[in-house]
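Field reference: sequence -> structure
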Amino acid sequence: MNAERLTKIEQELSKLRKSAKRWRVASCALLVGAGLLAADVVGPTVIDHLVVNRIDVLGDAGTPVVSISQTTAGGRIDLYNQSGTNLLRVSSTPNGGDVAIWDDEGTNVAGLWSAENGGTF
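Structure field:
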């Protein structure tokens, strides 16, 4: 009689362990799903104010294709092609602004800048 009772208790204990494991897995899945849903509802993080000295956007070759930086006179934006040649620069100067354009080989083809006595093209 004792052996039968022990066997029955062991079977019931085994069933309870399986049931507890199923509930644990279901609870974890529910929590993960709720977390993912909550993250999706919130959306991407929006930063109101970002302070950096320089920002580089890298192209396929791993070199900058856009660079935003600071100079002693103010700010500067450079655009590059995929091979790293600077094609356009918009920059602050002590007298105002500067725009420079280069071709794919790095030869300056156009420029517009301010000077003490006016502007130059």
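Note: The chain is about 35% helix and 40% strand.
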